[in-house]
């Protein structure tokens, strides 16, 4: 159905908003009209925050977490246990694990999981840099905290094969989280417990 917009500018703005995940054209229209009702300074602050975020955001050189600095706050915190590395899919997972307040180690953000269906192979992810970190020494334990999906399991196994000959303990978070669950949907208590009760990863699922 072709909707008639009274303004091309309005149509364009609605079009941009409706590209966002979970935002249909109706919601997009509501958001745009809401912004239009705000004063100019508010709308400018909104627009600028997105532009500045995209232009200036950095990714930690060590763990690939989102950061305002070259090395993120977690990696540069001397109170954290740098000998334990928790491997997660994305930045939201770092936030989920941090929210449990049960983990004192550092992270490694893969940027996804191996998924041939979606055309994501090992080289599209930060796996080589993980192997590199372990090879450099100082890491005693790598904790796999990926989703309990087939893709997560495939990635766990791939990492296991890469690290099995290296002198590092490989563990996997307890499967208190049911199969198919993503980390970010687990509640803090469950996720915290899964990390505390992690088990040795032996390559079998
Ligand atoms: Zn970092």
TrEMBL record:
GO BP: any one term: DNA repair
The keyword Zinc-finger is annotated on this UniProt entry: yes
One Gene Ontology MF term: DNA binding
Pfam families in the record: RecR_C (PF21175), RecR_HhH (PF21176), RecR_ZnF (PF02132), Toprim_4 (PF13662)
Record has Transmembrane as a keyword: no
NCBIfam families referenced in this protein's UniProt entry, alphabetically: recR
Role of this protein: May play a role in DNA repair. It seems to be involved in an RecBC-independent recombinational process of DNA repair. It may act with RecF and RecO.
Family: Belongs to the RecR family.
Name of the featured protein: Recombination protein RecR
Organism: Bacteroides faecalis
């Amino acid at each position: 159905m072709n909707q008639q917009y009274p303004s091309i500018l309005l149509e364009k703005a609605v079009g941009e908003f409706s590209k966002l995940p979970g935002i249909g054209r109706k919601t997009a229209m509501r958001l745009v009209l809401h912004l239009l009702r705000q004063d100019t300074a508010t709308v400018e602050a909104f627009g600028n925050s997105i532009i500045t975020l995209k232009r200036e955001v950095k990714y930690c050189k060590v763990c690939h977490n989102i950061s305002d600095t070259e090395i993120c706050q977690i990696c540069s915190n001397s109170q954290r246990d740098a000998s334990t590395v928790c491997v997660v899919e994305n930045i939201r997972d770092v936030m989920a694990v941090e929210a449990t307040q049960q983990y004192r180690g550092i992270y490694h953000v893969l940027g996804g999981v191996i998924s041939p269906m979606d055309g994501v192979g090992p080289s599209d992810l930060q796996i080589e840099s993980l192997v590199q970190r372990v090879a450099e020494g100082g890491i005693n334990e790598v904790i796999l905290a990926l989703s309990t999906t087939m893709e997560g399991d495939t990635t766990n196994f791939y990492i296991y094969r890469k690290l099995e000959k290296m002198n590092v303990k490989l563990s996997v978070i307890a499967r208190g989280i049911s199969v198919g669950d993503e980390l970010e949907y687990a509640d803090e208590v469950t996720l915290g417990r899964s990390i505390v009760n992690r088990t040795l990863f032996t390559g079998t699922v």
